[in-house]
Design brief:
The protein has helices at about 20-30, 40-45, 70-80, 95-100, 115-120, 140-150, 155-165, 170-185; strands spanning about 10-15, 35-40, 55-60, 60-65, 65, 85-90, 105-110. By secondary structure, the protein is α/β, with parallel strands linked by helices. Helix 6 crosses helix 8.
Length: about 190
C-alpha cells in the first residue's frame, strides 16, 4: 500500500446521498490527508468534474437521481487514472462485477471504516488491501444494517420490516435481541 504522503494529488470526491454519512466520511478522510469535496447526487458530482477531476472517489451505488456507476463512467472519461471505489449497503456479486467493469478499483459493503476506505484507495493495482485487523462483529453488522433501513424508512417500523421482508414484530424482536447481545460484556 502506498502512503498518502507520497501522492501529490490528494483530491477526493465523496458521492453519498446520506448527509450524515457524507459529512462523517469527509471529516475522517480530511483528517487522513485527503483534499475532500462532496456531492449528494450524480448530477452534482458530474458538475464537479470540470475543471479538475479528482484523483480519488468514494461513490455510493444507489442515489436518488441514479446509479453511482454513471459518475464512475464520467470520471473515467475525464480522468482515466482516477481511483474510484464503490460503497454500498446493497452489496451483491452482480453489482460488484458491474462496479469493477465500470472502472471501480474496489467495492466495499457498508458499514465500513475510514481506514478500510483509505486502504482500498491506496492499495496497489496488482493487489488487494489486507483484511482488517478487527473485523466487524456479524451481530453489529446486522444491527447497523437494520438501523440504516429503519432510518431510511423514516423511523417507521412497519416500513422497515417490509423492506427487510419480515413481520413487524419479528423486526422489533431482532433489533432488541441484537442490541442486548452487543451490550453484554464479553
Amino acid at each position: 500500500m502506498k502512503d498518502l504522503e507520497d501522492i501529490s494529488d490528494r483530491s477526493l470526491l465523496i458521492l453519498e446521498d446520506d448527509d450524515a454519512l457524507r459529512a462523517q466520511l469527509a471529516k475522517a478522510l480530511e483528517k487522513r490527508g485527503f483534499a475532500v469535496t462532496s456531492a449528494a447526487s450524480v448530477a452534482a458530482a458530474i458538475d464537479r468534474l470540470d475543471p479538475a477531476p479528482p484523483a480519488f472517489a468514494v461513490v455510493d451505488l444507489r442515489l436518488g437521481d441514479g446509479s453511482g456507476l454513471s459518475f464512475i463512467d464520467a470520471l473515467a472519461r475525464s480522468r482515466p487514472d482516477a481511483r474510484p471505489i464503490v460503497l454500498t449497503g446493497y452489496g451483491n456479486t452482480p453489482t460488484a462485477v458491474a462496479a469493477v467493469k465500470h472502472g471501480a478499483i474496489d467495492y466495499l459493503a457498508k458499514p465500513v471504516t475510514a481506514d478500510e476506505i483509505v486502504a482500498a484507495l491506496l492499495a496497489p493495482p496488482e493487489g488487494q488491501p489486507a483484511p482488517p485487523d478487527n473485523p466487524i462483529d456479524p451481530d453489529r453488522a446486522r444491527l447497523e444494517h437494520m438501523q440504516r433501513i429503519y432510518r431510511e424508512s423514516g423511523d417507521n417500523t412497519t416500513e422497515a420490516a417490509r423492506r427487510l421482508n419480515m413481520h413487524r414484530r419479528t423486526f422489533q424482536r431482532r433489533m432488541k435481541k441484537l442490541r442486548d447481545s452487543l451490550q453484554r460484556p464479553g
